[in-house]
């Protein structure tokens, strides 16, 4: 089976802020990363110029599910737009042919 892009994964980061480093245990954050196409580097996902970082892996995973769902809806929308454009072109061609006769 061919690999589908974009790909998403969860990255872990250690909070190195002064406040977090003063605690006895590490503070982890979970961020969403994306690879947009074959050979691309993994990059942090952002929304409104803010990285998608969460306090649990479950929340990051839920965000990935939302992103994938949005991609599917976006592809469906783009397919509908493309189909409508083709239908409009066919309609224009038919009108042109009918007006010539």
Secondary-structure element series:
EHEEEEEH
Shape: rod-shaped
Low-confidence stretches: none
How large a portion of the residues is in β-strands, by DSSP E? 15-25%
Q: End-to-end distance, in Å?
A: 51 Å
Tell me the quaternary state: single chain
Work out the radius of gyration: 23 Å
List how many beta strands DSSP finds: 6
> What's the number of helices?
2
Description:
The structure is a single chain. The chain is an alpha+beta fold. The protein has one domain (7-100). It has 2 helices and 6 strands, in the order βαβββββα. The chain has helices at residues 18-21, 57-100, and strands at 7-14, 28-35, 43-44, 46-47, 50-51, 53-54. The strands form 2 sheets. Strands 1, 2, 3 and 6 form a 4-stranded antiparallel beta sheet that branches. A two-stranded antiparallel ribbon has the order 4-5. The longest helix is centred in the last third of the chain and has 44 residues, at 57-100. It is rod-shaped, with a radius of gyration of 23 Å. It starts with 6 loop residues before the first strand and ends with a helix.
Tell me briefly what this model is.
With 101 residues, this protein is α+β, with helices and mostly antiparallel strands. Helices cover 48% and strands 24% of the residues.
